Amino acid sequence: MKIAIAQLNPTVGHLTANAQQILAAAQPAVQSGAQVLVTTELALCGYPPRDLLMQPGFIQAIATQLAQLAQALPPELAVFVGTVTTNPDAAQAGEKPLHNSAALLQHGRVQQVFHKQLLPTYDVFDEARYFQPGAGDQRVTLDGVTLGVTICEDLWNDADFWGKRAYGVDPLERLAQAGVE
User: Fold this and answer.
1) Percent of the chain at pLDDT above 70?
2) Cα–Cα distance between 119 and 8 in angstroms, integer?
């Protein structure tokens, strides 16, 4: 499997321009024979969106732009787009209303959504203020290959490297135990 990585410089809040950057990255990915394109964390809305996330109209605009982007992308390319998604369980479970997510776009629609599990709250980061941590299966099978999906901080909880765990769970360890390729 050939995977292309889109190193983008999205502008916080400029959804249409950010979507255009993703579309522009898709064409050379397809031309190079990639089956998968991976974008940056929160590529669609820009990082960090901070209090823009408190605006319901902004959240709706993200969902609309994501659906339009799915339709505009080459259908043969699977694209992981960093985005914000709503948490449907928020009100009943007393959780945060949003997730920091990676949406898998393919064949003109959102196929699957994965949520960031480890939310940093140190230094300049305040993700736990806005987002509910993800849980559950972070695997997807594309072209017969089982992939694991992680987002940023999810990769950085290696006790061997840091000398201790910063979080109670290790998403990479979970994916390894689940047999991702």
Assistant:
1) 100
2) 22
* CA proximity to 117, closest of 98, 130, 136: 136
User: Phi and psi of 119, rounded to 5°?
Assistant: -110, 110
Catalytic residue at 116?
A: yes
Check if 45 is active-site.
Answer: no
Catalytic residue among 45, 127, 152, 153: 152
DSSP line for 55-98: -HHHHHHHHHHHHHHHHHS-TT-EEEEEEEEE-TTHHHHT--SE
pTM confidence score: 0.95
Look over the chain and give the mean of its residue pLDDT values, rounded to a whole number: 95
